[in-house]
Specification:
This protein has 6 helices and 8 strands. It is α+β, with helices and mostly antiparallel strands. GO terms for molecular function: acyltransferase activity, transferring groups other than amino-acyl groups.
Length: 195
């Protein structure tokens, strides 16, 4: 990847991805199928990377920019990716749609270090809140986001991913101080009583 550097995390470099990166992202998903199996009950589809890069959020989800970020190690190997929406639903609310690091890096603190640098980059870009949805039952991911300071705001039931219906834990984290009650005034759809 010879693209502009967004940020670094130790020896890992973060770059913006585009449609030209579909083959490398597809190869990454196929080498690291655990996420797709955990949340969709199937290995990555042949179009997994194309869908991740080309499918936009649903109509009615206002946002300013979508960042598709690839992580490459010192050897030039693609080791992870993130999908981040800027100002989703409200100014200062950034959404992490997907964050995956290579399975070979699990359990060594690499994912946490990359996430911390991603969060710092988001904060520098104006993020005051970060939100995400984690599939209930994906225990590794649930623990990861809890350890990184995310708090439950609501649950969404019947979210189909791949071949599986899931319940999502919608979680949020203040990046510039603040209470969840304030966040819920900004993003009313995340209120626990929202339909």
């Amino acid at each position: 990847m010879t693209k502009d550097l967004l940020f670094t995390s130790g020896d890992v470099r973060a770059f913006e991805m585009d449609e030209g990166d579909i083959p490398v992202l597809q190869a990454f998903f196929e080498r690291n199928p655990e996420y797709c199996i955990a949340v969709g009950a199937q290995p990555p589809t042949p179009d997994e990377a194309r869908d991740e890069i080309t499918i936009l959020p649903p109509a009615g989800y206002p946002y300013d920019k979508r960042w598709l970020i690839g992580f490459v190690d010192a050897n030039g190997e693609f080791v992870g990716m993130a999908n981040v929406l800027v100002n989703l639903f409200a100014a200062g609310v950034w959404h992490i749609g997907l964050f995956i690091v290579a399975t070979s890096m699990h359990g060594r603190g690499n994912a946490r270090a990359i996430y911390e640098d991603l969060e710092a980059w988001m904060r520098a870009g104006g993020a005051r809140w970060s939100r995400l949805g984690v599939v209930m039952g994906n225990a590794r991911a649930e623990r990861f986001w809890e350890r990184n300071g995310y708090l439950d705001v609501r649950k969404r039931h019947g979210v189909t991913i791949g071949k599986q219906d899931n319940t999502l834990r919608v979680m949020a984290k203040p990046l510039a101080g603040g209470e969840i009650a304030h966040y819920l005034t900004l993003v009313a759809r995340d209120h626990p009583d929202a339909a």
